[in-house]
Amino acid sequence: MSTDELLGRRLCEVLSIEAPIVQSGMAGVAGIDLVTAVSNSGGLGVMAALRVQPEVLRDSIRLIRQATSKPFGVNIWLHSDVRTSPNPAEIPEDVVRGSQTVLNHFRPRFDLPSTLERPPSPTDMIDAALEVMIEERIPVFSAGLGVPEADLVERFHRVGTKVLSMVATVEDGEAAVANGVDVVVAQGGESGGHRSYGHKLGRQNAMGTSCLVLIPAMVDAVGAEVPVVASGGVIDGRGLAAMVALGADGVLMGTRFVATRESAAAQVWKNRLTTGSRTTTLTDGFTGQWARVLTSEFTNHWADSGAEALPGLLQSAAGSDLFGAAKRADDDQMQPLYAGAAVAQLSGILSAAEVVSSTVESARNILGR
Ligand SMILES: Cc1cc2nc3c(=O)[nH]c(=O)nc-3n(C[C@H](O)[C@H](O)[C@H](O)COP(=O)(O)O)c2cc1C
Predict the structure, then answer these.
(1) pLDDT digit string (tens) for 304-316?
(2) pLDDT tens-digit profile of 113-140?
(3) CB of 236 closer than 6 A to ligand 1?
(4) Residues in Cβ contact with 237 at an 8 Å cutoff, skipping those fewer than 6 apart
(5) Residue 21 Cβ contacting ligand 1 at under 6 Å
(6) Which of 61, 116, 194, 349 is least surrounded, with the fewest CB atoms within 10 Å of its CB?
């Protein structure tokens, strides 16, 4: 294998980038500053579009274009219960009561009133966001939590957009390739943030498969057709080298980029990712969908309560007063601090450019070329 192949030449060619590193789309973290810093460093910066108003998204895409001439991506979820939200009125009374009872346990901490009400109906914005992305002819569309359908892939291809699909199973990887995507991102169970399934699974199944097992299986299944990017637990060049050894063409990193200077994450989150004792857990108590976050008072109490999360993203709507107050107060126990399983090895808040260059350089050293 040549050096170029080892360091992801195939991925770089498909996406027209220089370093085989994709930065994850991350709501509240991956704004214009982080995206342009990563793209200007040779990787692929990806903006998060979930819950962004369509016209705000259009403006952001245009601002990114002003700040970089390099390719960038825009990410959104295709999850069936997020693309079209469940009707709050149809949630069983005992489910609403169970969830609100846990939230009520913590509301007094921020002087918030107790409630057993249903959350309001959210506005579905994903399809409108997809239209904006197509109209703006973005360089790369990055789909998470659901395989893009063939006609959506074709519409992106018609305007010259490459399509990247993040999946957590070989079956979904095969479906994505059958639908015409250009790159498959294989999400291992180590990953920070939400599990990349198109519908909600039970906790045991949602845990996912480790990269050590998933990456070679995905490479064997679809690697002959499209580049495979490994996602989950990669925070430095050792991770990139290991994923390349497993057959991946590059890596997608989330947690490492949260703790960068250009990330829009709150300082308390960056500090918790890089200092002190850190463990992670899978919870659906913050949003309604399973996500890996730093273990906290809230995640422990939610798990012990046995409460059932509201469907779609209605759990996050139900708890928005509590989680919002925690965010404003810099309370690290009552808000979702998404983090991958490798978080305890993170130290130091770097620039995005340092992350890209040091990861590539160290992988080159390890691989001996
Ligand atoms: C803070 C944070 C937010 C995330 N938000 C998204 C998102 O909006 N869309 C998405 O497809 N994946 C999202 N992810 C998941 C990542 O795409 C990826 O699977 C994960 O970050 C890889 O694991 P790592 O965090 O150990 O690098 C997010 C991850 C984190 C840490």
Answers:
(1) 999 999 999 999 9
(2) 999 999 998 889 999 999 999 999 999 9
(3) no
(4) 358, 359, 360, 361, 362, 363, 364, 365, 366
(5) no
(6) 116
